[in-house]
UniProtKB/TrEMBL annotation:
GO terms for cellular component: endoplasmic reticulum membrane. GO terms for molecular function: heme binding; iron ion binding; oxidoreductase activity, acting on paired donors, with incorporation or reduction of molecular oxygen; steroid hydroxylase activity. Gene3D superfamilies: Cytochrome P450. InterPro entries: Cyt_P450 (IPR001128), Cyt_P450_E_grp-I (IPR002401), Cyt_P450_sf (IPR036396), Cytochrome_P450_3A (IPR050705). Keywords: Endoplasmic reticulum, Heme, Iron, Membrane, Metal-binding, Microsome, Oxidoreductase, Transmembrane, Transmembrane helix. PANTHER family: CYTOCHROME P450 FAMILY 3, FATTY-ACID PEROXYGENASE. It comes from Magallana gigas (Pacific oyster). This is Cytochrome P450 3A24. Its cofactor is heme. It holds the Pfam family p450. It is found in: Endoplasmic reticulum membrane; Microsome membrane. It is a peripheral membrane protein.
């Protein structure tokens, strides 16, 4: 390890420990902590997560080098907790050759062609969303859009990933809804904090039934749901077109779509040959799609509604674009691609409120970063929230301004100063699915309503303290009919 870095990290270790305690008393979470660390110590900041060294890197050129040029040295993500059961077969937890196989095999599932094939499922769910909102709007009472969009994204994932047709907003007691909320409800208990500091103790706690990740009942439920759906499809010749069926088809899906290169990675000696996904891999990745697609997309939609309600001029400009290009035509995959201002609104929302405050890579070998030799085993983290609000890259960074994402303005900015879906070979595989969900939902709503603030609207929004960014107290708005 480079002595300079060792002295720098070791010298600030106590300082960071004290800083974390002070920030905790001020109830500042991961996002604001990263901002303060970057402002105070610069683009390379050494901290500790328990006993594990963690490097925060904020320089876009360096981020690009790590994510792309040095990908062979940082191909995997660090794992705070040991993955177990089917989750160890998911794309998020797989490493090296297993990850490459899963990535190459699953990527065609999210191509634009496959999204078009799933249009009937998307249409059914956004129409369901609109029907539910119409009933709520008639009361004239504020609507918590965090809950509403959470129900919508859960319905989409249940439909596309598990073959289940539910209306979670009208049926909150549905088993799928209840088990999903149980699965995602992991709070920072003393035991969880102990595991963060001493990760290996989780193995003992797991077998003693004390670990917050020993969720056998919940995983058994999702396993039964997937296996039941798979068995039904094996017997039924009229197969649905959804993520689950596409995963079942991967062993013979060439899937090359448009300009997408899905079967090779830089540095691979040979093209990857697909095989049939195992049941464990299908179950693990169905659950992964639930984990990464439910809360993140619903949060992004809620933040979008908030930004439009608090910036009525932007909302009117978007409505004018929708009226001019779609009119009353139902939104679909192709026509919403024509809405350029809508794309800017979403991009700016994800700049201000990225789904995750950080994204991570693990140094599998020693790697030189800005003159420092970073040793194998270091967690290299990119503070997305902090970078997205850095005045070096974004003028007046706290202001909501979709015009930042015109082609001219994007060309002036370093592409790696914007990281809502990551970059390089590890970029978010479900990005296109999330974008389709969001576009269809917002367009279908704005064809009939406007978002309006009210006394219950929290301005500014209080953000959660966890790495996953969400509105702590929901997003309460009114819907005003356009008719």
């Amino acid at each position: 390890m480079n002595v300079a870095l060792f002295i720098e990290v070791d010298a600030v270790k106590k300082k960071f420990m004290v800083t974390r305690l002070e920030l905790g008393r001020r109830e500042e979470g991961v996002a604001l902590t990263d901002q303060e660390l970057a402002r105070t110590y610069g683009d390379i900041v050494g901290v500790y997560m328990g006993h594990r060294p963690l490097l925060l890197v904020s320089n876009p050129n360096t981020i690009k080098a790590i994510m792309v040029k040095e990908f062979s040295r940082t191909p995997n993500r660090p794992k705070t907790f040991l993955p177990r059961n089917e989750m160890k077969y998911s794309l998020l937890n797989a490493d090296d050759d297993q990850w490459r196989f899963l990535r190459n095999t699953l990527l065609p599932t999210f191509s634009s062609g496959k999204m078009r094939m799933m249009e009937p499922l998307f249409k059914a769910k956004y129409e369901q969303l609109l029907d539910n909102l119409t009933e709520r709007a008639k009361t004239g009472k504020p609507i918590d859009f965090k809950d509403v969009f959470g129900a919508y994204t859960l319905d989409v994932i249940a439909s596309t990933g598990f073959g289940m047709d539910i209306d979670s907003q009208k049926n909150p007691d549905n088993d799928f809804v209840k088990y999903t909320k149980k699965f995602l409800n992991i709070s920072f208990t003393p035991i969880l904090i102990l595991i963060l500091i001493f990760p290996k103790i989780d193995t003992l706690l797991y077998w003693l039934g004390m670990s917050p990740f020993n969720r056998l009942e919940i995983l058994s439920f999702f396993r039964r749901v997937v296996k039941r759906a798979v068995d039904q499809r094996m017997e039924d010749s009229n197969k649905l077109v959804d993520l689950l069926q596409l995963m079942l088809n991967t062993h013979h899906d060439t899937g090359v779509d448009e300009s997408e290169n899905i079967h090779s990675f830089e540095g691979d000696g040979n093209p990857w040959k697909t095989r049939r996904l195992t049941m464990d891999e299908i179950v693990g990745n169905s659950i992964l799609f639930l984990l990464v697609g439910y809360d993140t997309t619903s949060n992004a939609l809620a933040f979008t509604a908030y930004n439009l309600a608090t910036h009525p001029d932007c909302q009117e400009k978007l409505i004018e674009e929708i009226d001019a290009i779609l009119g009353k035509e139902p939104p679909n995959y192709d026509n919403v691609q024509k809405l350029e201002y809508l794309e800017r609104v979403f991009c700016e929302t994800l700049r201000l409120y990225p789904s995750a405050c950080r994204t991570h890579r693990l140094a599998e070998r020693d790697i030189v970063i800005e003159g420092y030799t970073v040793p194998k085993g270091t967690d290299i983290s990119f503070p997305i929230y902090s970078i997205h609000r850095d005045p070096r890259f974004w003028e007046n960074p706290t202001r909501f301004d979709p015009e930042r994402f015109t082609p001219e303005n994007k060309a002036k900015r370093h592409p790696y100063a914007y990281l809502p879906f990551g970059h390089g070979p590890c970029s978010c595989i479900g990005m296109r699915l999330a974008q389709v969900e969001m576009r269809l939902a917002i367009v279908s709503i704005l064809q009939h309503y406007r978002f309006k603030t009210c006394e219950e609207t929290e301005i500014p929004l209080k953000l959660s303290k966890a790495n996953l960014l969400k509105p702590e107290n929901g997003v309460k708005l009114l819907l005003e009919s356009r008719s």
